[in-house]
Known about the structure:
- The two termini are 26 Å apart.
- The chain is mainly α.
- It has helices at residues 6-9, 14-39, 44-56, 65-76, 88-109, 113-133, 144-150, 152-170, 176-187.
- Residues 190-195 have low confidence and may be disordered.
Amino acid sequence: MIISELSQLMMLSLTKQRTFAYLTCKRLYPNYAYFSRIYGFGNPEVLGEAMDYLYDNLFNEKIDKIKVADLAKKIESNMPQPADYDTILASSALDACTAIIESTSFFSDNQPLRLENISTMATDTVAMYIHDTNGLDPNTDINFQQKINSNILMVKEIAIQKGIISYLSKIEILQPSDIDTLIHLQEDNVGSLRL
């Protein structure tokens, strides 16, 4: 699902766009850590290293492209293949890996399409969870998409994304304290982020 506010995000500073990407990864990372713990697969520390790199470079103009490529290779070697598991947790873990790779790549190449991909991975992860836990069938349920979109988890994810963009749009200069505020708000599962 693509949120309409992404066009507004595309007009913000690079640092604000990076912040959106980082925060999305921060929401998805626990899915990987949980999958890894339950199934004994992969190494969450590899993703953690990439997350630390993102955070440490939010305000840096020059990005070490060799480091970004190295991080991507490490993450790729820790990506689960969902077909190997009888659980959606593998797909959620894969989404976390892919979002982090897309984010590190965005820091390196500034390609706006990556922001759309990162946003969509978050909503797709939520949609997949709703689909699975509610036993919804897109082939037989004519209200399938409406049930996905109106579920409280999807409403919260979309509200968080919109709230982050709104917050970033309202501040003139992004400060590290703003990032800490946004992290705190999304960790509290706030349905709407406001200044």
